[in-house]
């Protein structure tokens, strides 16, 4: 059974809807899932998992959330991430997903294997929820 962690930040709930969809998809494929708001997450939630989903909205000039998500993510810069499988998910208001393109590249530079990502405008559509569930399923494999 794969151990999957889902670690996210959300204020208005849009990113949380995606997190819960990924949770549902991963569980449906038999994963043991650990879902945490980033404030409650520890480095071990990443290092001890087989695969991870990280989620954030675009905030503060088209970047991932800066007060909690940014410091959590930056811890991995110097760790041996060894191509661990991850997906990224998030929501934006007006940047057309630019923050996500930047985040994907950054995580690749940190030596994660970014197998998929989704960036939605404000709240996710039914199709986007379905895609998020499928991404959860990919993490479980
Ligand atoms: C304080 C604040 C700053 C934001 N900054 C950006 C931004 O720089 N670029 C952007 O595209 N959207 C920005 N947004 C829009 C959010 O990314 C968008 O509403 C997202 O759906 C929020 O996710 P959440 O509901 O999970 O909190 C901002 C929203 C807030 C409240």
From TrEMBL:
Keyword annotations: Electron transport, Flavoprotein, FMN, Transport
Record's keyword annotation contains Metal-binding: no
Q: Name one Pfam family in it.
A: Flavodoxin_1
Q: Does the keyword Transport apply?
A: yes
Needed cofactors: FMN
Q: What are this entry's molecular-function GO terms?
A: electron transfer activity; FMN binding; oxidoreductase activity, acting on NAD(P)H
Domain named Flavodoxin-like: which ranges?
4-140
InterPro entries assigned to the protein according to its UniProt record, in alphabetical order: Flav_short (IPR010087), Flavodoxin/NO_synth (IPR008254), Flavoprotein-like_sf (IPR029039)
Q: Which family does it belong to?
A: Belongs to the flavodoxin family.
Function in brief: Low-potential electron donor to a number of redox enzymes.
Q: Specify the protein name.
A: Flavodoxin
């Amino acid at each position: 059974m794969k151990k999957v962690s889902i670690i996210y930040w959300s204020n208005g709930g849009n990113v949380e809807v995606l997190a819960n969809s990924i949770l549902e998809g991963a569980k449906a494929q038999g994963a043991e899932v650990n879902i945490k708001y980033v404030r409650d997450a520890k480095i071990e939630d990443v290092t001890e998992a087989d695969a991870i989903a990280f989620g954030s909205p675009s905030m503060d000039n088209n970047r991932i959330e800066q007060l909690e998500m940014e410091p959590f993510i930056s811890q991995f810069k110097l760790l041996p991430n060894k191509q661990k499988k991850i997906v990224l998910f998030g929501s934006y208001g007006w940047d057309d997903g630019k923050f996500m393109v930047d985040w994907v590249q950054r995580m690749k530079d940190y030596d994660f294997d970014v197998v998929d990502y989704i960036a939605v405008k404000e709240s996710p559509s039914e199709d986007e929820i379905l895609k998020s569930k499928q991404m959860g399923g990919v993490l479980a494999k």
